[in-house]
Amino acid sequence: MSRKVTLAEASAKSGVRHVLGLSGGKDSAALAIYIRDKYPALHDKIEYFFTDTGAELAEVYEFLDRLEAFLGKKIERLSSGKDFDHWLSVYNGFLPSAKQRWCTREMKLKPFERFVGNDPVISYIGIRADEDREGYISHKETIEAAFPFMEDGIVREDVFRILEESVGIPAYYEWRSRSGCYFCFFQRQGEWLGLKRRHPELFEKAKEYENRPRERYDWESGKGDGGGIGYTWSSRGDLDYLVERAIAREQAEGVITSTKHQTWQNMLAADDGDDESCAICHL
Ligand code: SF4
Asked: What is the pLDDT of residue 212?
């Protein structure tokens, strides 16, 4: 965990780079807008960046374009230089999971660490005052972290208001609780159903990964076909099963959650989805 600094300490430092990573999600975007309006001198110094996995929703790119225009500053687009399929083959065809998050490490964290190099850096993180979590996973000693929302008492309701009064709320929040790859394994059943309804072609692609044959090392006969059986994005079952469960739940509750338009007031009343997923992808 990098060392924490206050906003006052951060502003007083010289010879450091100031960076703010935008995930495509609401909190990091609101933080950039908040800093632009409340700390303009800091905004001038900050380098904004977005780390693209190549598996983002189209809505994320639209939102980033809007944000870039509003901030009046370029959002640097970083990437690992390779697509998900490349990394999947490096990891022997094993899909990432909450316990094996090679995707975040290879496609988010390493590109960020290359971007900052060995420069002394202060990274601004959008964890809010109403959250209790660690938001940062780089261990580089040259990186310090500042948490303006925590310091200034900014909570979830404030974040929605900041966005509503500026660039708007990213469109995917109508059916999804967080940003990230279209196949992100942190998605809930209802969100997989939302993906199927909103982006059927991406849902099919995600399913295709589950069914992909992969090599497995057999000690007696050498490498063999591992097949797709039992190999899913979720430990609860394959995507068809998750979607079936989500539909059954909708019917039982009489609410079509993944297609209804949600206002931020609705979303505030609902569960946030601030769980074990981490800030680098979902903030
Ligand atoms: S959004 Fe999800 S799938 Fe994508 S890199 Fe982050 S944890 Fe991995």
From this structure: 82
- Position in ligand 1 atom list of the atom nearest CA 183: 3
List the structure tokens of 209: 């990964």
Give the pLDDT of residue 45: 96
Length of the chain: 283
- Determine if ligand 1 sits within 6 Å of the CB of residue 179: no
Mutate to test the pocket of ligand 1, among 101, 177, 178, 283 (most ligand atoms within 8 A of CB): 101
**Is there an atom of ligand 1 within 6 Å of 184 CB?**
yes
Residue 113: other Cβ atoms inside 10 A: 16
Query: In this structure, what token pair is assigned to residue 154?
Result: 């900014």
- pLDDT at residue 99 in the model: 87
Lowest mean pLDDT among 151-160, 193-202, 241-250, 270-279: 270-279
pLDDT band with cut points at 50, 70 and 90 for residue 139? confident
Q: Could you tell me if 143 and 114 are in contact, meaning their C-beta atoms sit under 8 angstroms apart? A: no
Nearest residue (by CA) to ligand 1, atom 3, is: 184
Helix H, strand E, coil C: the string for 79-117 is CCCCCHHHHHHHCCCCCCCCCCCHHHHHHHHHHHHHHHC
**Nearest protein CA to atom 1 of ligand 1, as residue:** 180
